[in-house]
Design a protein that fits this description.
The complex is a heterodimer of chains A (about 725) and B (about 180). Chain A is α+β, with helices and mostly antiparallel strands and about 725 residues long. In chain A, helix 3 (about 65-80) runs parallel beside helix 5 (about 120-135). In chain A, the strands form 5 sheets. Chain A has a 6-stranded mixed β-sheet with strand order 14-18-19-17-16-15. A 5-stranded mixed β-sheet of chain A has the order 6-8-9-11-10. A 5-stranded mixed β-sheet of chain A has the order 20-12-13-22-21. Chain A has 5 domains: about 5-135, Up-down Bundle (Four Helix Bundle (Hemerythrin (Met), subunit A)); about 155-310, Histidine kinase CheA-like, P2 response regulator-binding domain (Alpha-Beta Plaits), CATH 3.30.70; about 325-385; about 390-570, Heat Shock Protein 90 (2-Layer Sandwich); about 575-715, OB fold (Dihydrolipoamide Acetyltransferase, E2P) (Beta Barrel). Chain A is globular. Chain B has about 180 residues and is mainly beta. Chain B has one domain: CheA-289, Domain 4 (OB fold (Dihydrolipoamide Acetyltransferase, E2P)), CATH 2.40.50. Chain B contains 3 helices and 10 strands; from the N terminus they run H-E-E-E-E-E-H-E-E-E-E-E-H. In chain B, the strands form 2 sheets. A 5-stranded mixed β-sheet of chain B has the order 8-1-2-10-9, with no helix packed on it. The chains are: A alpha+beta (about 725), B mainly beta (about 180).
Chain lengths: ~725, ~180
């Protein structure tokens, strides 16, 4: 199936399209922010225009007709926006956002195996209709005054400007900015980088309206460009900023100020096909015909032009890689580590043999180098898998915007720690739980504006998301300044659902009460009177997180807000583990959840409320015996001395009682296969060498099972 | 002229191929025959990836008793099912002739512990009968049909049914 060329093309299309759609959506967010602040940058609209233009071509190439058509019309709309023919209103932005979401949905459908964009036919038809409406309302009035005001350009230059460039030229002139021509020469091989650097240098000073190949070129190894720049500052400022770049800055002469006929260099047509004139060359001459330079359209030497465009090297240095390939690499490194363990075994035997002591030393040295390099390789692969959480946070901002509009609430979304890095796989899996959490914050946490005003709170509610790295974990906090959790409603809901009886309810601590929201069906909503069924239950959020070895905690202050704290490992791909033995079996415990281990005598164990506990420096530590948790049959009696491995996630602590500590080892966790995946307490299996396969314990579920989720225990 | 890669695998010459196709127009399937608990069973050979010697399996808690545990085969960890228990035979110690049949369902692998691997037989599709409603033992559910091969009866197993079982899950696979 997947070998059909069309499917292959779609698969290749997907990551690229997703990247473009994400960029597009990010630009929209920024545009919206800027619009609200009253300073929408034309460059930003242009970037959005360009991204959707690329998407159109891409969609067309794999036969996604609807997506192509939709992007075409979005492109038209953005074109009108950048030409100021359509004002960038909230409604227009909404349309654009909707398109962004629809693009994403189509991409998701294809990711799930759809071979066409037919699934979104209704949605795209509907959106198209509204787009046509917006386009029809567009101001058809076209400003006819010359774009260049009193500046003196030669006609051949003007003839190659695109409509947009001409518009920007006009806007710059209208704003009273000075126009400059920057002549720069670039090496053929590095033009992409050089041009970008120059543009960056110019950006803070003004706007690069266009750049055109210059005909003044001599060296065939070089491309010379003329950049037309509009800048408000004085010429000296620009001169200073460009110092050292080896470019020539000239002010574009103005009519009436000129000292004579200009020999303005006639540019060759721009390289990009996109920049082909959209209208016939304007024959209109500048205001003072007497000073019109003679339009000398020097036809470019075709051969030279061809030579100049031979460098189509892209400026991008990145490669997109399927994450499964990285998984495979990681597995290979894991197996190499096993081979190294084998070598170590041979080495140990060699060491005993006195006659081969020299050989043993050499091998020992080589094995150490091999080991070090393997460790480096492992670290490098893990690093490749890491992506900043900002990727998810961007998506969340869009969700916040959408939900807050739906809910009629004004929300300030505050992001911090977006640069915190996490395994790509985890980042992907996190987006849905985070989205549900934020939706809950807005739907149920933040009060309606009038209620907030009455309570003396700022009318705009705040939802904040903050990420930070702590050792091998990443902590993500989602916080709102809303109404807080209603303890009474939670308890009532849990009692109604049969998780608690009234008596037990009275004995719950505040934390235990808050933890009730993670039980299926328990909610603070009063059934039937309030809008329900929109938010996904927190139980689903919790189980999805525990699949990622994550744990979630909730804190709340009535009237002040709620905070959810997620604690996740940085990566699931390779971990350090403590190898232990219990009841004759060997297990691996992820070291990132091990706090310490202690030796205990059987007399140290006490029983409190039918739970076994030990004292840990004055604190009571609940313990669980691995053999009890897994109902293992033990040959012979329990040893008098056992070890307690104190494991913890977030603020929860449990002692795992085991027989023996074997040692520490890097392991690759492997799935037990779909049929056995997800057994409580088991995270997977790993190989320890010598064909020994052992299970990896899932500390998160063991901790939860031992402590019970507050009410689960209280009800029993 | 290649002697390999024909649909029946063992056909040596072109001539033999024609003779065979003329003589036996009925579609044929190959089954691997093995014994478990004194009975002979067959599984479509196309479902069998390899046959390996028994190696110690790692016990997995909280699973049905017929799952012996997991083993790692060429880097893939897979569950091993004791067919004796799965087919409701009496448990018995693992003998020297016992083997793991590695079978596939989609892209997932499983091991099946059998007492002895016997042979590969060809059964014409017209020689397969539906299982009788009353079959000795309680294994009826797992038998897809009864085949005749060289005067012997072979119980053809419904592999998908055998591989279908439930284990407790702490984590739902996806949000609703």
């Amino acid at each position: 199936m997947s070998d059909r060329p069309i499917d292959r093309a779609l698969q290749e299309f997907l990551p690229e399209a997703q990247e473009i759609i994400e960029t597009f959506n990010r630009l929209l967010l920024k545009l919206d922010e800027d619009r609200v602040a009253g300073r929408a940058a034309p460059g930003m609209i242009n970037e959005a225009f360009r991204s959707v233009h690329t998407l159109k071509a891409l969609a067309g190439s794999v036969g996604l007709a609807r997506m192509a058509h939709l992007s075409h019309r979005i492109e038209d709309l953005l074109d009108k926006c950048r030409l100021d023919k359509v004002e960038l209103t909230a409604e227009v932005i909404d349309l654009l956002f909707e398109a962004g979401e629809l693009f994403q949905r189509i991409a998701a459908d294809i990711g799930q195996g759809a071979s066409s964009d037919g699934g979104s036919a209704d949605a795209s038809g509907d959106l198209l209709a509204r787009l046509e409406g917006a386009l029809a309302r567009a101001d058809s009035g076209h400003r006819d005054e010359p774009a260049w005001g009193s500046y003196v350009f030669d006609a051949s230059l003007l003839s190659v400007l695109t409509e947009y460039e001409e518009h920007r030229l006009r806007e710059n002139v209208r704003a009273g900015r000075g126009l400059y021509r920057v002549h720069a020469a670039f090496d053929l091989a590095t033009i992409d980088v050089g041009l970008e650097a120059l543009k960056e240098r110019l950006k803070p000073l003004g706007e690069v309206i266009t750049y055109l190949p210059s005909s003044e070129s001599g060296d065939p190894q070089q491309i010379e460009l003329d950049l037309i720049v509009g800048a408000p500052g004085p010429e000296s400022e620009i001169q200073a900023a460009l110092a050292g770049l080896g470019v020539v800055l000239r002010a574009v002469p103005r009519a009436g100020r000129s000292t004579g006929p200009q020999r303005a260099p006639a540019p060759t047509p721009p390289r990009g096909i996109q920049a082909a004139p959209e209208r016939p060359p304007p024959v209109a001459t500048p205001a003072t015909p007497a000073l019109t330079p003679i339009a000398v359209a020097v036809l470019p030497d075709i051969e030279v032009v061809e030579e100049r465009v031979t460098s189509i090297k892209s400026a991008s240095q990145t490669v997109r890689v399927d994450i499964r390939k990285l998984d495979h690499l990681m597995n290979l490194v894991g197996e190499l580590s096993l081979a190294r363990t084998g070598i170590q075994g041979v080495l140990d035997e060699l060491k005993v043999d006195r006659e081969r002591a020299g050989l043993a030393r050499t091998l020992h040295h080589e094995a150490r180098v091999l080991g070090r390099k393997l460790d480096e390789m492992q670290a490098a692969i893990i690093e490749v898998r890491m992506v900043p959480l900002g990727q998810v946070f961007d998506k969340l901002s869009r969700v916040v915007r959408k939900i807050s509009r739906e809910a009629g609430k004004d929300i300030r979304f505050v992001i911090s720690g977006a640069e915190t890095e996490l395994d790509k796989l985890l980042v992907e899996e996190l987006s849905d739980p985070l989205m549900h959490m934020i939706r809950n914050c807005i739907d149920h946490g933040i009060e309606p504006p009038e209620v907030r005003a009455q309570a003396g709170k700022p009318v705009a509610g705040t939802v904040a998301i903050a990420a930070s790295q702590r050792g091998n974990h990443v902590v993500i906090e989602v916080e709102d300044d809303g109404v807080g959790l209603d303890e009474a409603k939670l308890v009532r809901s849990a009692v109604e659902r049969g998780y608690l009886d009234e008596g037990a309810a009275g004995e719950l601590s505040r934390r235990e009460i808050y933890n009730l929201i993670f039980l299926p069906g328990v909610s603070t909503k009063v059934a039937a009177t309030e809008l329900s069924g929109r938010g996904v239950g927190m139980d689903v959020v919790k189980t999805n997180l525990s699949r990622l070895s994550g744990i979630i905690d909730v804190e709340s202050e009535p009237g002040l807000g709620t905070r959810l704290t997620l604690t996740l490992p940085i990566t699931l791909a390779i971990i350090q583990a403590l190898v232990i033995r219990a009841a004759g079996r060997t297990y691996a415990v992820p070291l990132n959840s091990v706090l310490e281990s202690l030796l205990i005598q059987s007399g140290d164990v006490r029983t409190i409320e039918r739970r076994e506990v030990v004292d840990l420096r004055g604190q009571t530590l609940p313990i669980v015996r691995v053999e009890d948790a897994f109902r293992l049959r033990r040959e012979g009696a329990r040893p008098k001395k056992s070890f307690v491995v104190v494991v913890g996630l977030a603020q929860h602590r449990v002692g795992l009682v085991i027989d023996e500590l074997i040692g520490q080892q890097d392991i690759v966790i492997k799935s037990l296969g779909k049929s056995l995946d997800g057994i409580p307490g088991i995270a997977g299996a790993t190989e320890l060498g010598g064909q020994q396969t052992v299970l990896v314990l899932d500390v998160a579920t063991l901790v939860e099972e031992t402590l019970g989720v507050g009410a689960g225990e209280a009800a029993s | 002229m290649s002697t390999r890669g024909t649909p029946f695998g063992l056909v040596a010459t072109e001539e033999a191929w024609h003779r065979r196709t003329r003589a036996e127009p009925v579609p044929q399937r190959e089954y691997l025959i093995f014994s478990v608990g004194g009975e002979d069973y067959g599984i479509d050979i196309l479902r069998i990836r390899e046959i390996i010697k028994v190696r110690p399996a790692t016990e997995v808690p909280r699973v049905p008793s017929f799952i012996i545990g997991v083993v790692s085969v060429r880097g893939i960890v897979l569950p091993v099912i004791d067919l004796r228990l799965r087919l409701h035979h009496e448990p018995a110690p693992v003998g020297a002739a016992a083997r793991y049949l590695i079978v596939a369902r989609d892209d997932e692998r499983f091991g099946l512990l059998v007492d002895r691997v016997r042979q590969v037989v060809r059964v014409g599709e017209n020689e397969i009968e539906a299982p009788p409603p009353v079959l000795a033992g309680t294994e009826t559910d797992f038998v897809a049909g009864i085949g005749r091969s060289e005067q012997r009866l072979v119980l053809l197993l419904d592999l998908d049914h055998i591989l279908r079982f439930e284990v407790p899950r702490a984590r739902p696979r996806s949000a609703p």
